[in-house]
Amino acid sequence: MIQKELCKIISQREIAADIFELTVEAKLVNEITEPGQFVHIRVSNRDPLLRRPISISSYNKKSGQFTMIYRKEGKGTSLLADLTEGMVLDILGPLGNGFPVDEVTAGETALLVGGGIGVPPLYELSNQLTAGGVKVIHVLGFQTKSAVFYEHEFLKNGETFVATVDGSYGSKGFVTDVIKDLRFDCIYTCGPTPMLRAIEQMFSDKKVFLSLEERMGCGVGACFACVCKSADDPTGVSYKKVCSDGPVFRSGEVLI
Ligand code: FES
Questions:
Q1: What value of ipTM does the predicted structure carry?
Q2: Binding residues for [2Fe-2S] cluster, per the UniProt record (predicted)?
Q3: Which residues on adjacent β-strands are paired with residue 177?
Q4: Per the CATH hierarchy, to which homologous superfamily does domain 3-95 belong?
Q5: How far away, in angstroms, is 93 Cα from ligand 1 center?
Q6: Is 227 in the pocket of ligand 1 (CB under 6 A)?
Q7: Model pTM?
Q8: How many whole angstroms separate alpha carbon 248 and alpha carbon 104?
Q9: Which of 41, 97, 212, 220 to mutate to test the pocket of ligand 1 (most atoms within 8 A of CB)?
Q10: Is the pLDDT of residue 28 over 80?
């Protein structure tokens, strides 16, 4: 069930250039059902008034805490980045449908492909798949070396490839250059739309789950700010809401 809660900040740190890792204590952690869900954070009572959608990168129901990773890039996330341990945040969540973990079984291989700020939700997914005996391979793409984060965290679970667009770290180029030679049973991916589109086209014969990044208003399916076209409707008038139908979709479910 979606809850609105004032959550205490346990820690906040900058883990790469303008990338922040924020951990809070919250009862709503008990409502999280899948990796890849997100929360909606109110960062100010004045400007900006709209909440900011931030994906959940990991959670621990025993400790009652969850962690988010976000990029500081506008007014809202700049205000968020200024907050420190002990302060309180107004959080709505958990929201959306995440990655279906049971689409791969023990002994199979899952390929997790993340681009930039699409990397965080894959971390909890990687942890859960690994715990279930699934072999995981990670391919993480960033613009440049200073933007790289969580490589070592992912490495603990399995083979991890890093690509940077400018070649300053890992292999030079895009994640799609790396994944074409890998073998796997299922892909889970999150990142910029051109990356998702390329992956969907490359692996039309595979099981692919894509988490879409979209601008949001309400976050709960009420405002239509986040709609995308449904692929199974020939008339082109049927839509899906990324916030409440997604953000994770099976390939071929929506037009991206
Ligand atoms: Fe309002 Fe999705 S953000 S319907």
A1: 0.99
A2: 218, 223, 226, 243
A3: none
A4: Translation factors (2.40.30.10)
A5: 13
A6: no
A7: 0.95
A8: 16
A9: 220
A10: yes
